Amino acid sequence: MIGIVSIVLAVLQVSSAACDTNKYANSTPIELLQAYVQINTTTYNDLTPAVEFWTALAELADVSIETHELVEGFPILVLKWPGADSSQQSIMLNSHMDVVPASLEDGWTYDPFLGIIDNGIIYGRGTQDMKSVSIQYYSALRRLKENNVTLLRDVYMTLMPDEEVGAESGMIPFLKTDAFAAMNVGVELDEGTPYPLPMIALFYQDKVVWQIQVDCHAVSGHGSSFPATNNTATGKCRNVVDRLFEFRDEQYEIAATALPTAAGGYTSLNLNKLNGGTANNVVPSVVSLVFDIRLSTTLNEVQFDAQLREWISEAGDNITLTYILKNQQSPATVVNSTNPYYVAISEAAEELGITILPTVPPGSTDARHVRNAGYPAFGFSPMPNTELLLHAVNEHLAVSVFNDGIDIYEEIITRLANIPADSTTTDHSAYLYSTAT
Ligand SMILES: *[C@@H]1O[C@H](CO)[C@@H](O)[C@H](O)[C@H]1NC(C)=O
Ligand SMILES: *[C@@H]1O[C@H](CO)[C@@H](O)[C@H](O)[C@H]1NC(C)=O
Ligand SMILES: *[C@@H]1O[C@H](CO)[C@@H](O)[C@H](O)[C@H]1NC(C)=O
Ligand SMILES: *[C@@H]1O[C@H](CO)[C@@H](O)[C@H](O)[C@H]1NC(C)=O
Ligand SMILES: *[C@@H]1O[C@H](CO)[C@@H](O)[C@H](O)[C@H]1NC(C)=O
Ligand SMILES: [Zn+2]
């Protein structure tokens, strides 16, 4: 791939002195989660200890691990669990190593990087987002292997370095590599979120983010001058805010009555930064606003861009619009009987007696990049009856929910990887559809 250098740092076969496999030889899954939480993988930290951790786990499971460092300091790990027929499209189980910042001073009961278990609950950064899921994938696959279960299709565990900051050094370039192409992926599983009810959300699409900066320019003046409101930077920006908040109120009306499963049906918009002014007695020449917008999945991107420009031009002259972030809307993964991957997950849920709810989350994950690359993807984290604490203080997970999740993945992975040979189309985009109007 042009511009991308794929460095395979290590392909392990036998024990190497570098990694301490004995350390984890007798660890239970929850002990592995504790050990992983204890590695401080706050985004931009050196991930070498995490790479060593996964290298040791790969070795314990006797599977290969490759490290692709497409951008220096941002390793991407790929663990391969071979199936009986590697010519079949594979199952990709993705998670990210990085976590958002956390410190005791933020008000945590326990140090967020210790993984303390108290009263059947593990506390720590990554216990929901998403070190728990990585360990669950691994524990399920390892248990299957130890029980001599051979699956039909190859299963890959991929671990990304920078999901929390936009995947520019992780998933986005990885999807363009020969290494990814060689995986012959049929479907990808990615992160979901906890659900406060006895059910698990299955995300089949994400809401993409646009961040815009609006700069209102006008003629600066002495604090005692008195220009018409519409000729001031603040007055022009007020017009912008008024119009965008009118839209916000309309969308809020829809959101307020929408089911939690229907976040795709409205566009959220927040004014998150206001900047301007140089001195208390100077009328400013420029005021700027930053809005964070999460697009409804049915919104037409071209029309919405034109709409924003129209509202801004109506607010006055000399107002500029700059995109800080303009993510491309992703297609949705088909969630009915025509998608064998969805059928496999549904059958697993039935077998397990759990409820899986196809839904669209209010935010987005790496899965959107996978769908944009043309592959069906689902966001799924087996955390029913769990308060949503992603990125929050005192992020935690019940140990029982964590352990049940391993059983859930064992069933789901088995069914996905045993979808009969040649019954999935090699045109994987057949399991995607556009929802934009
Ligand atoms: C974790 O890493 C972050 C980012 O480097 C750092 O600010 C923080 O102090 C670390 N926390 C601990 C407990 O080591
Ligand atoms: C799996 O196979 C190995 C080698 O044949 C055998 O030693 C082991 O007992 C088997 N494990 C189970 C759980 O059947
Ligand atoms: C100021 O501009 C806004 C937006 O174009 C307009 O609705 C309003 O009538 C103007 N106010 C005055 C006093 O001209
Ligand atoms: C726009 O801003 C520039 C620079 O501040 C100023 O020279 C110009 O007169 C403004 N144009 C209008 C129509 O207000
Ligand atoms: C499955 O979903 C796709 C996308 O929404 C739709 O086009 C198709 O008609 C559905 N098929 C069935 C059998 O429901
Ligand atoms: Zn996450």
UniProtKB/TrEMBL annotation:
Swiss-Prot/TrEMBL GO biological process terms: amino acid metabolic process
Residues annotated as the enzyme's active site: D98, E163
Compartment(s) of residence: Cytoplasm
Sequence positions that bind Zn(2+) 2: D129, E164, H391
Gene3D superfamilies: 1.10.150.900, 3.30.70.360, Zn peptidases
Signal peptide: 1-17
Assigned EC number: 3.5.1.14
Main location: cytoplasm
Keywords, ordered alphabetically: Cytoplasm, Hydrolase, Metal-binding, Signal, Zinc
Co-factor note (free text): Binds 2 Zn(2+) ions per subunit.
UniProt cofactor(s): Zn(2+)
PROSITE patterns membership: ARGE_DAPE_CPG2_1 (PS00758), ARGE_DAPE_CPG2_2 (PS00759)
Molecular function per GO: aminoacylase activity; metal ion binding
Domain of life, per lineage: Eukaryota
Matching Pfam families: M20_dimer (PF07687), Peptidase_M20 (PF01546)
Catalytic EC class: hydrolase
Residue positions binding Zn(2+) 1: H96, D129, E191
Residues annotated as domain Peptidase M20 dimerisation: 210-317
GO cellular component terms, semicolon-separated: cytoplasm
Database matches in InterPro entries: Aminoacylase-1_M20A, ArgE/DapE_CS, Bact_exopeptidase_dim_dom, N-acyl_aa_amidohydrolase, Peptidase_M20, Peptidase_M20_dimer
Family, per entry: Belongs to the peptidase M20A family.
Protein name: N-acyl-aliphatic-L-amino acid amidohydrolase
Organism, scientific name: Heliothis virescens (Tobacco budworm moth)
Source species taxonomy: Eukaryota, Metazoa, Ecdysozoa, Arthropoda, Hexapoda
The encoding gene: ACY1
